[in-house]
Amino acid sequence: MSRRGWILFAAMSVIWGIPYLMIKVAVEELAPSTLVLFRCGIATVLLLPIALFRGEIRPLLPRWKPLLAYTAVEICGPWLLLGFAEQRLSSSLTGLLIAGVPLVGALLARFGPDRERLGLRRLTGLLVGLAGVGALVGFEAGAGDGRAIVAVALTVLGYALGPAILSRTLSDLPSPGVVAASLAIAAVVYLPAGIVEAPATWPSAQVTLAVFGLAVICTAVAFLVFFQLIAEVGPARSTVITYVNPAVAVLLGVLILDEQFTAATAVGFVLILLGSVLGVGLIYLRLHTMPERMAHRGHKLQFEIVATLGLLALFTHIHLFWIAALLLALVDLPDFTTPLSSIAGSVERIADSAEPDGAQAAQDESPTTGVEPRGSKEAMTSKKEAHGHV
Fold first, then answer.
1. Which end of the chain has less Cβ packing within 10 Å, N or C?
2. Residue 10: which of 304, 324, 276 has the closest Cα?
3. Tens digits of per-residue pLDDT, 290-341?
């Protein structure tokens, strides 16, 4: 993968990891329907003119039925349900539960029209992933609202159905046009409820920034960057961001919202991640070695540091090490070792060349010094012995 592909991948991993934080902040003052209306409306204003200018809306008209189905399961349902769930659950827990999307996708592939066969590896991955979800639901959300868990489960189902509908019925259509039209449809659908449930006063500055962040960064900009990522690395590799987003969601929830990170959270996330890797395919194992492959073309010191951080992330499951390795691999550090090695080699060669000259000079000086008389040498020895007996 090219350096541009890695940069796009890192950007999407962060961009689609922060919506859970912003949704948590926004639903403190806004109803979920109003939040969806603002998010879709602002993003539509930004994306729809681009799609119209490129002529990407007209080809969608004959496919209006699958377009409506895609909008319902990918945007209208999940975004409302996420807002409802985050009124009752933490943003980090919601993000971790959403990591089960690949597991549901694997089940849909098995029991869907294609009837893909689940081998032992994929079946094991599904069971491990379900164990992780069970750990999160049982230990973290057990004391919470059961309706919120159902809402997240339906969101996961919708996020798994959306790409299936897209790939089977809309894959030959321009993707920016599909997204712009879907957002416009969702904005129209939520217009009545969003207005009715809108607050009487303008929300606080914090909520306003969260809404604009969701609409501009996490929706409009995110989809544009995601299309560039697909074009650069392909659709299969682009879905690997699903495994990085929950880590970003947990990190932001703990650092900004002071949410708790317990042992059950760590165990559940590891099980879900491992189950998704096994259930979807071994190609995603390349995700962990991504920083090392990026730094392989750099100099030795940078590669060694990146590899060390990667090993720390692997054995400690602290994703900050992996993020640090990725950021370090993206930066071209100056190579200090090569110039220093060259200087040391030059100094060593100068010292080697100067040593014979010094030895020759010592040999030249030795005849001029003369040989001491035998008597004087014996007298000196007698003086030393006499001095030793005093």
1. C
2. 324
3. 666 666 555 666 777 777 777 677 656 566 676 777 777 766 666 656 666 7
